[in-house]
Inverse folding.
């Protein structure tokens, strides 16, 4: 674990295991430190690690770095219903390639600017910016 980066990242329950400095980009390999996850089908608490699955997720910038998290969304196998499942992670929605807080930040940028400019400044496609706007509006309407 890298304590300073874990602290800078500030995602509760998440450790930075290692990092790569690519000059203008920073890639942090992160992992949740919970040893167990709840099966989404039957609610059984499961400890059994089935396999790991890593992928990149965009997060808020750290200093001048565009920052990506290499998320290890661990696979568990439920001991009761016997089916594999991915652990839910609080900071990133299922199948999303950006963290919730990054999407929230982007939506705020769009409010004060326009989609094209935000996309250019952040090296994102217009489509990805729009997907964040839609994602956050769905997220906010479903929590009310
Ligand atoms: Zn189950």
């Amino acid at each position: 674990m890298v304590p300073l980066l874990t602290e800078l990242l500030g995602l509760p329950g998440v450790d930075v295991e290692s990092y790569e400095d690519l000059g203008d980009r920073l890639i942090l390999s992160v992992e949740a430190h919970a040893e167990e996850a709840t099966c989404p089908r039957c609610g059984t608490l499961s400890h059994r690690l089935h396999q790991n699955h890593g992928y990149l997720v965009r997060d808020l910038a750290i200093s001048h770095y565009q920052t990506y998290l290499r998320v290890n969304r661990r696979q568990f196998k439920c001991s009761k219903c016997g089916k594999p499942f991915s652990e839910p992670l609080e900071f990133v929605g299922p199948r999303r390639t950006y963290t919730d807080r990054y999407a929230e930040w982007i939506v705020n940028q769009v409010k004060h600017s326009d989609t094209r400019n935000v996309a250019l400044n952040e090296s994102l496609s217009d489509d990805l910016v729009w997907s964040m706007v839609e994602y956050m509006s769905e997220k906010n309407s479903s929590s009310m």
